[in-house]
Amino acid sequence: MPTPRYGIWLIGARGGVSTTTILGLSALRHQLTPEVGLVSALPAFAKLPLVDWDQFVVGGHEIRPSTLATEAEMLHQQSRVFNEQTLAACREELDAIDQNIRPGVLWNVGETIRELATDDSSASLNPRDSIAQIQADLNDFRDRHQLTDVVVVNLASTEPPLDEALWPTTWQAAESLLEQPSCPLPASSLYAIAALDLGMPYVNFTPSLGATPGGIDELARERATCHAGRDAKTGETLLKSVLAPMFAGRNLEVMSWVGHNIFGNLDGKVLDDPVNKRAKVESKDHLLEKMLGYSPQTLVSIEHIQSLADWKTAWDHIHFQGFLQTPMTMQITWQGCDSLLAAPLVLDLVRFTLAARARGETGALAFLGSFFKSPLGTENQAFFEQTQVLEAWARESS
Length: 398
Ligand SMILES: NC(=O)c1ccc[n+]([C@@H]2O[C@H](COP(=O)([O-])OP(=O)(O)OC[C@H]3O[C@@H](n4cnc5c(N)ncnc54)[C@H](O)[C@@H]3O)[C@@H](O)[C@H]2O)c1
Hints:
By secondary structure, the chain is an alpha/beta fold. The protein has helices spanning about 15-30, 70-80, 85-100, 110-115, 125-145, 170-180, 185-195, 215-220, 235-250, 265-270, 275-285, 285-290, 340-360, 385-395; strands at about 5-10, 55-60, 100-105, 150-155, 200-205, 225-230, 255-265, 295-305, 310-320, 325-335, 365. Helix 1 (about 15-30) packs across helix 13, helix 2 (about 70-80) packs antiparallel against helix 3 and helix 6 (about 170-180) crosses helix 8 (about 215-220). Nicotinamide-adenine-dinucleotide binds next to helix 1, strand 2, helix 4, helix 10 and helix 13.
């Protein structure tokens, strides 16, 4: 019997995280890199039936023309990441994957994202037609490459947030929204609906709405498939979810927590629009209350500083109170390369999601909470507790 093959379908397929994920996968296949940074390569997951790097086929949707090789070269030049040898060895594979990338849809993505699209032929599609186009592309990809399953991962630019009062709480309500000419659901939710309706799992790496509403989770359960999200926890917020439980465990009262983030990539440019930025700031800011049990004063700022390219500096200033009401301060500076922090987590999420599929799990995958700033299906935000949940799931699943 031939070895089964699995699809990874990336929405935003030529963005920084997608390009790095694709290059990283290719480098793993060529054994040009160790598995450092990959959670799924840890000994705790050695007994899980995980899909091998060689079994994956990649495709996706994108709204900018470009090519993967151009995007990888740009990251290399501007952000001093990857080496020449890796770029050269993976070039052929990047060119082949470009052939699997199709034009994306633009429903309710906001002005800033719409301006990124040079070919806006899909801009006129209504929600139902957008879903039909996405499904035709997904079916074609699965059939052409004879894939056992396809995991759809949202790595597209962050959309403006949608007022929670408008989220459909049932699948029936979502379906009637799709018929309305003023349907408020954004493209990320249309991609989610298209994938889940075909029984394909969906992972939302971004703060965009995606499959978050109860009505879309209901669709996933009805179609016996699963989803995970949202907004991957890769840097400053990861630190928050490690440090906040420490302050709580020592009964030190956090009075204020300020996080200032500066970076210069395309994601940062989109987040420079105050409307898109709101979705990200909400996602980075809400978790402290859950871990501390009270709400200190908080401030999260995100600024686009072009010269920094993909390198993010996050400065956190934590003002806290100890015994005899003595005020103290912790300051941390985090300097990380955004796409390099994110890419291995994309591969981990795909592998764990496929393992959950094999176990017949449906709906929101709560055991993946450690990967997200706003985890679906669980209220737990503390990183080490979330890691224990993941490891316990792996023990049960092995
Ligand atoms: N460490 C991280 O990099 C990190 C962490 C958490 C979340 N995220 C989120 O992941 C996403 C990707 O980050 P990035 O740095 O790669 O951003 P990016 O701007 O480099 O890439 C986004 C890509 O999505 C494309 N796109 C936008 N709207 C689309 C649509 N409707 N359909 C298809 N393609 C579309 C854009 O053209 C672009 O190529 C962002 O939403 C970001 O906030 C990133």
